[in-house]
């Protein structure tokens, strides 16, 4: 089963590229992927806040842009924060919410991610809600509980009429970053099935339309096996995608597999 007729594939650039480097990266990515059928794929890139104004000049139907975080308030006394109104001026498509670094480095809570998710979709953005268990959760055997809590709180009171603006990214914390350990395919498949089951509890009869992406040490060596898995609707790639030509390679490796999967599940 797939939840989208398009392959969703993107990357969060974190705090790694300057404005000039981001523009060079995006320009190259747009160029090398210009021949790809856009009816079959959505490519999205999430640069740093400082690069967004320049990056927005390169935005087109061939490239969606996202923000790495967002406050839930339209305005207010929130020093250092960015509001949805500010992002809307830039024509941003996607807002990444609840990334593990926001949760574990900056102490963002499930309640806060919930407020951000609701604000994002109410302002017309696609909310990319990131969820995933830590190594400690995994070792204690509470991975499923952790994911269910993140989903149930993060999507509390979500407006069902805006489900088309919701993406889920499953990123086991122990699998991401420089020292991440890639998750085994059967582990990913099982986790995505549990996520789908929880979404069905929250949105009966409508959960099948919510895309679930996988992120966690995705690279050229494992991308094909991952995208072929049932329930994996896209890939959220880290450093393996930070070179435009490498990203292009991963896209071209996975797109035919995705298209074949679509045919088999149609």
UniProtKB/TrEMBL annotation:
The record's annotation in InterPro entries points to:
Aldolase_TIM, TIM_sf, Triosephosphate_isomerase, Triosephosphate_isomerase_AS
**Its annotated pathway?**
Carbohydrate biosynthesis; gluconeogenesis; Carbohydrate degradation; glycolysis; D-glyceraldehyde 3-phosphate from glycerone phosphate: step 1/1
Q: Name one Pfam family in it.
A: TIM
Main subcellular location of this protein, as a coarse class: cytoplasm
What GO cellular component term, any one, is given?
cytosol
One Gene Ontology term of the molecular function aspect: triose-phosphate isomerase activity
What PROSITE patterns does its record include?
A: TIM_1 (PS00171), TIM_2 (PS51440)
| Taxonomic superkingdom | Bacteria
Report if keyword Isomerase is assigned: yes
Q: Does the keyword Secreted apply?
A: no
As for subcellular location, the record says: Cytoplasm
Complexes and interactors: Homodimer.
**Family, per the entry?**
Belongs to the triosephosphate isomerase family.
> What name is this protein filed under?
Triosephosphate isomerase
Q: Which species expresses this protein natively? A: Leptolinea tardivitalis
């Amino acid at each position: 089963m797939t939840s989208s007729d398009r392959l969703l594939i993107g990357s969060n650039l974190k705090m790694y590229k300057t404005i000039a480097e981001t523009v060079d990266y995006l320009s190259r990515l747009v160029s090398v992927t210009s021949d790809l059928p856009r009816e079959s794929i959505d490519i999205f890139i999430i640069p740093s806040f400082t690069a967004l104004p320049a990056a927005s000049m390169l935005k087109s139907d061939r490239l969606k842009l996202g923000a790495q975080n967002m406050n839930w308030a339209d305005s207010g006394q929130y020093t250092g924060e960015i509001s949805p109104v500010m992002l809307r001026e830039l024509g941003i498509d996607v807002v990444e919410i609840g990334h593990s670094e926001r949760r574990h480095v900056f102490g963002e809570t499930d309640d806060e991610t919930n407020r951000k998710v609701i604000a994002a979709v109410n302002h017309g953005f696609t909310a990319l809600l990131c969820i995933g268990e830590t190594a400690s959760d995994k070792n204690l055997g509470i991975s499923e509980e952790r994911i269910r809590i993140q989903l149930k709180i993060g999507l509390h009171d979500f407006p069902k009429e805006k489900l088309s603006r919701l993406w889920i990214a499953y990123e086991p914390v122990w699998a991401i970053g420089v020292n991440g350990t890639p998750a085994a395919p059967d582990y990913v498949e099982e986790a995505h099935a549990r996520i789908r089951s929880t979404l069905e509890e929250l949105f009966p009869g409508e959960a099948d339309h919510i895309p679930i992406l996988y992120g966690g040490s995705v690279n050229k060596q494992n991308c094909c096996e991952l995208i072929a898995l049932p329930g994996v609707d896209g890939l959220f790639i880290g450093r393996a995608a930070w070179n435009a030509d490498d990203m292009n390679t991963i896209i071209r490796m996975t797109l035919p597999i995705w298209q074949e999967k679509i045919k088999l599940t149609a």
